[in-house]
Design goal:
A hairpin with a 2-residue loop joins strand 9 and strand 10. The protein is 36% helix and 28% strand. Helix 4 packs across helix 5. It contains ten helices and 13 strands. The chain has 281 residues and is an alpha/beta fold.
Length: 281
């Protein structure tokens, strides 16, 4: 019996376009964050994990389930995509309930689980309102309720914090933590590392379809710091500014941009550089 989500030498190409390449991962229980810029491969990994796309090569296994049998896989997996789209005319309760009924549950069980999930995301008072009248945060929460309703062992959430105000973000994070505390595998994606570092048990950092770092947040941060950060600075006097930055011990390399309107700088300590830039400039 497997207790991990396994990616074994997995690659996915869309024609000639790379999705992810040579991914090897073993994801344990808890909150795991996939972090990287747009186009880095986060959504492709999630779609592979949920069986929505097939790998070009390699093997994906979710606990004891292969991803080529969605009927069985989605009994233990919940997925909330990044797309802010809903069937027209449904209330929040009808949205959650309808998916439970489609999964084969009887009316009584579906009603009970739908209300329980809606209460978990603090939407009980608005459950009978049409989703079209929901705020961005409410729509995010009702999608989370739908993914949670059947009590999955694995919860996959694509950009669940995107566009939320601080209060809505805090409420969502509380649900992530309580779900993970019950033994669930919570997989979330974000393009901002500091957005998820305080809630993640482990982080997987992606760039251009490759896993470039993985592990606990402290380990990932140290790996990032071992590699220089390149920063583009736009300015009117690039040569004068370059001379000042070259005097800093953390600066590795400075080059004038080809358009003569800025410079490219590599530093070992980006956080310190940003603080000192105000003094130099």
């Amino acid at each position: 019996m497997s207790d991990r989500i396994i990616f074994e030498d997995v690659s996915k190409f869309y024609g000639e376009i790379l999705g992810v390449n040579r991914v090897n991962l073993s994801i344990p229980p808890g909150i795991t964050s996939l972090v990287g810029p747009n186009g880095s491969g986060k959504t492709t990994l999630m779609n592979l994990m949920t069986g929505l796309v097939k790998p070009t090569r390699g093997r994906v296994q979710v606990l004891d389930y292969t991803t080529d049998n969605p009927e069985k896989l989605f009994k233990i997996l919940g997925y909330s995509t990044q797309f802010d789209a809903f069937p027209k005319g449904l209330t929040g309760f009808q949205f959650v309930n309808s998916y439970l009924r489609l999964a084969g549950m009887d009316a009584e069980s579906a009603d009970l689980l739908a209300w329980k999930a809606i209460e978990r995301v603090n939407l009980a008072d608005d459950a009978n309102r049409n989703i079209a009248g929901y705020s961005k945060g409410m729509r995010q929460r009702i999608r989370l309720a739908q993914a949670l309703a059947h009590n999955p062992k694995v919860l996959v959430l694509d950009e669940p914090l995107n566009g939320l105000d601080p209060l809505a973000r805090s409420e969502m994070i509380a649900v992530f933590r309580s779900t993970a505390a019950q033994g669930c595998y919570v997989i979330i994606s974000s393009h901002i590392l500091h957005e998820v570092d305080v809630i993640s048990d482990q982080v997987i950092l992606l760039s251009n379809g490759y896993v470039v770092a993985e592990g606990q947040i402290s380990t990932v941060r140290s790996e990032i710091q071992e590699h220089p950060t390149q920063i583009l600075i736009r300015c009117n006097r690039p040569r004068e500014l370059a001379a000042k930055f070259l005097a800093d011990e953390h600066t590795i390399e400075v080059a004038i941009h080809k358009d003569e309107r800025g410079l490219l700088l590599k530093t070992r300590d980006a956080d310190r550089f940003y603080l000192e830039m105000n003094l130099v400039a």
